[in-house]
């Protein structure tokens, strides 16, 4: 059970290890949507994404004995970087299982933060098998990229900061992959701004969360196809119940809508965001008539982009 008090304790625990990221607006994007939008810029977070929050909180909760053996995780990119950097800050080892097709920029960053990369073929089964081998060999503590209550509580602090500065938001939009950010955002609103509705954006080509909400149980991700490489994972048994209870809806968006929203943020706000970040804005633009005249928070989840592979 994640309580209001545990979220407040998390915020106090991690604040000196993370950035309090800025909140920005764009008059032009406000005009396009017909609403007042407040972008929480986690692309300016340490290592370039919100995942630094959850990784830091999870590592700070380890015992001294556990820290001696280090930490391990599997990730296609941002959580890999977050664990590598958070571990480096705490002076412990990090073993990162990454699929062979992970973006080179993210592999380079993990190595730069001192993480040890173990590559595997790009399937969830291979990730988990390789991870188990690493944990058995090293004794490292496995930290799940999203299906972990300490990680979820860390991710919640982004929305907590947003709500502290704008306590009258009608809705907050966030992208959904494994659900760590979305479930944390939902809990932050539930405890600190209960009138604020939580809405998720999800790629049409990786819509397991939408399917899960429709069915009322977890529908595993199968063969996802989307430019939003941070949103390819399935919901977890810890994230899904929170999302099911506290998220109002999930809006699915097409690839061209994601790319258009990403380009809009780059061109009009002069912000570097990755495709996964643009999914939340794409969802808002898609259903803008429903949110006309409202005050909307949008979490820009990260900005780790491989510049040689821009979609525009």
In a nutshell, what does this entry contain?
46% of the residues lie in helices and 15% in strands.
What does this structure look like?
The protein is α/β, with parallel strands linked by helices. 46% of the residues lie in helices and 15% in strands. The chain folds into two domains: 4-48 and 148-309, Rossmann fold (3-Layer(aba) Sandwich), CATH 3.40.50.1100; 52-142, 3-Layer(aba) Sandwich (Rossmann fold), CATH 3.40.50.1100. The protein has helices at 4-14, 27-33, 51-60, 64-69, 78-90, 104-112, 124-138, 149-165, 180-192, 208-215, 239-246, 255-269, 275-286, and strands at 23-24, 36-41, 71-74, 94-99, 116-120, 141-142, 171-175, 197-203, 249-253, 295-300. The strands form two sheets. It has a six-stranded mixed beta sheet with strand order 1-2-10-7-8-9, with helices on both faces. A four-stranded parallel beta sheet has the order 5-4-3-6, with helices on both faces. Strand 3, helix 5 (78-90) and strand 4 (94-99) form a beta-alpha-beta unit. The longest helix is centred in the middle third of the chain and has 17 residues, at 149-165. The chain is globular, with a radius of gyration of 18 Å. The termini are far apart. The model has no long low-confidence stretch (mean pLDDT 96).
Features:
alpha/beta; Rossmann fold; 10 strands; 13 helices
Mean pLDDT: 96
Return the domain count.
2
Within the CATH hierarchy, at the fold level, what is the topology of the largest domain? Answer: Rossmann fold
Radius of gyration: 18 Å
Topology:
Blueprint: H1 4-14, E1 23-24, H2 27-33, E2 36-41, H3 51-60, H4 64-69, E3 71-74, H5 78-90, E4 94-99, H6 104-112, E5 116-120, H7 124-138, E6 141-142, H8 149-165, E7 171-175, H9 180-192, E8 197-203, H10 208-215, H11 239-246, E9 249-253, H12 255-269, H13 275-286, E10 295-300
Parallel strand pairs: 2-10, 3-4, 3-6, 4-5, 7-8, 7-10, 8-9
Antiparallel strand pairs: 1-2
Domain Tryptophan synthase beta chain-like PALP: 16-302
Keywords: Lyase, Pyridoxal phosphate
Family: Belongs to the serine/threonine dehydratase family.
